[in-house]
């Protein structure tokens, strides 16, 4: 076999870690092409990480080192399923690794969910992060906002809503969002979680940061963080992580803190599930059902509805209850889990249980949404180990067509003539950084694809 040619669909952390592991191993000569539907790489590190978290984005430097390795190419602005199919890729590559994440927000499934003023996390996060899919959205930011969810994305949205102009203007938040956020009418952000404080999915730093905003108090009713018998037993058990125990302590600290009279306030609420969003033409309130925790027969803690109801007036609801992956033509899909069926990254035919040769998955589309950025590194190693084991065992098929790098370039030039190589992305990157320098900001992002392409076209198409 000549050089092993691998296509990776999705240029987020999972895709870059697969590329890194493949290109740094010594057992086989490998060439990797990383494809993404956007002209920009790095996935949620660029478009999902909160703009006031620049240290998390520093991981991009590692991905830049991967991109500099011999055998690496990036093709941005290429959508698999639209410009090329999985079958097309199989003609030119020994294996296709899907790393395209989980882009669909889970639904609450309650009346009023689709009212104007009720938005998904993807919409709002994409809007303030200059994601091209969402930059044209408009958000009415009223006096009270309700955020549904107790994970880090919910915490990020809450914190961004509470940032002062001074805090916003030193970040790479989208230009169009700075004035809207800084000058908004928002006075109160109510965060509603389905389970108790001991089960909240926030990481400790995300919780602490809520209490460190310059112009935003955190308010917690002591009753909200008083543990019931079930939660107390959970906290004392081996099932409770140190992170969860520390969260409980931080919440209790918030509850004992007197508000400082800042411009805005964050109110943390637990054991509440939305049952209806109400309004005449747009969101006017949300009805929340009170829950209690019970331990089911399998030992898991479940939140069950007590029948008690509370209506909270609000003009905006942001829903952050998790994500699901989406199907890609030519591959099996589990609609319940929102993942591609697999065994350690090997794609499996759910009917026969047999491996589909030359098809692999990594990241959220492999295991479901969860973990932090670094979780993808070990996950990628798991998939790469399986792929290389299959190569050694002769289970990876030869491409059915021309497997040369030139053939792929010709195909993509025909199907996606505006595609962006890594050198094109570097031109976009330099331009964004230059736009930010006069304002003391790390960058001012382009949110329009055509503008990005105009910058990228000034560079060589090789790369």
Automatic annotation (TrEMBL):
Cofactors demanded by this protein: FAD
Ranges that cross the membrane: none
Keywords, in A-Z order: FAD, Flavoprotein, NADP, Oxidoreductase
Catalytic reaction equation(s): 2 reduced [2Fe-2S]-[ferredoxin] + NADP(+) + H(+) = 2 oxidized [2Fe-2S]-[ferredoxin] + NADPH
EC number(s) reported in the record: 1.18.1.2
SUPFAM superfamilies: Nucleotide-binding domain
Entry binding sites for NADP(+): 150-153, 194-195, 206, 371
Binding, FAD: 14, 44, 80, 364, 371-373
Molecular function GO labels: ferredoxin-NADP+ reductase activity
Cross-referenced Pfam families: Pyr_redox_2
FAD/NAD(P)-binding domain ranges (all copies): 5-186
Highest taxon listed in the record's lineage: Bacteria
Family: Belongs to the ferredoxin--NADP reductase type 1 family.
Name of the protein this chain belongs to: ferredoxin--NADP(+) reductase
Organism whose genome encodes this protein: Conexibacter woesei (strain DSM 14684 / CCUG 47730 / CIP 108061 / JCM 11494 / NBRC 100937 / ID131577)
Organism phylogeny: Bacteria, Bacillati, Actinomycetota, Thermoleophilia, Solirubrobacterales
